[in-house]
Amino acid sequence: MLLPGLARCAHCGEPLVATEGSTTKPHKALGQKHYFSQAYPCPTKATRGTGACDGQRTSFSSAKRMERTMLAALSHALGQLSTSTLIARRSASRPRRR
C-alpha cells in the first residue's frame, strides 16, 4: 500500500486510508481458496456515513491502478529534475554564511 496520506477523496478532500481484507470461498480443485484485497476507502464516509461524504471506496483493482498511476507520475517528475537543478535549489535554500 503506497498511497495512504497522498491520495485524497475526490468528494471531501480527506486523505484516503489503506485497508486490507481477506475472504475464503469454495474452490473446486482446492476445496477452499483465500482471496486478499486492498482498498483505499474515504475515512469520512467510513466513520460518518454517506451523509457526510458520498466518496468512493476503491477496490483491489482500482488500488493497483492508482498506485501504478502515482508511481508513473513520480517517476516522470523525478526524471525531469537534473542534478544541476537539484544542486541549485539546495544552494538557494541554505542560509548564507557571513
Automatic annotation (TrEMBL):
Cite the Recombinase zinc beta ribbon domain residue spans from the record. Answer: 2-56
Origin: domain of life: Bacteria
UniProt cross-references to InterPro entries, sorted A to Z? Zn_ribbon_recom_dom (IPR025827)
What name is this protein filed under?
Recombinase zinc beta ribbon domain-containing protein
